[in-house]
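User: I'll paste a sequence; please echo it back and then give the predicted structure.

Assistant: Echoing your sequence first, then the prediction.
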Amino acid sequence: MSIWWSLHLRREAASVPLARRFLLGTMETAGVDPEISFDLSVALTEACANAVEHGGDHRVQCEQSDDRDPWDVWDELPGTASGQYQVTAYLDGEKCRIEVADSGPGFPARRTLRRSAQQRDSLQYPSLGAEDGRGLCLIEQLADHVHFGNRPGCGAVVSFDKVLKWRKDALLMVS
């Protein structure tokens, strides 16, 4: 059995714990092992915090087309609030995939797919005194597979996967 959900959230600090609680509630109800749920919730918190901080309205710098759908929240006009980001989670079989997308400037081109378990030794970590940059490294450490990419046009997408472990009384036990 599989489930998925998607949230469209305002780019406000209060949205971060909301997304985290939603994920934790879903995982607990489904019967996911609490340690796995905790790891995923911390990674989600970091991805959402980045979207809130860096996912602002940079659409003025992005190419816009005149054939925008007026109901599409990602196609807001430049100069409007555009203070939204999207969180989508998929629990499918033995894996959970989480994606956080914003409408900010996106990532530099050098960020690529990393298999965290295989490349932990080659990661570049920020210095201990750095105020920024630890969140992405934390996501890489907590997930099994991580991808930092850009949406077509403008915006960043952080997606990460983790293999699930189930409690013995799990409702969505993998068959």
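Residues 34-54 form the longest helix (21 residues). The CA atoms of residues 13 and 52 lie 7 Å apart.
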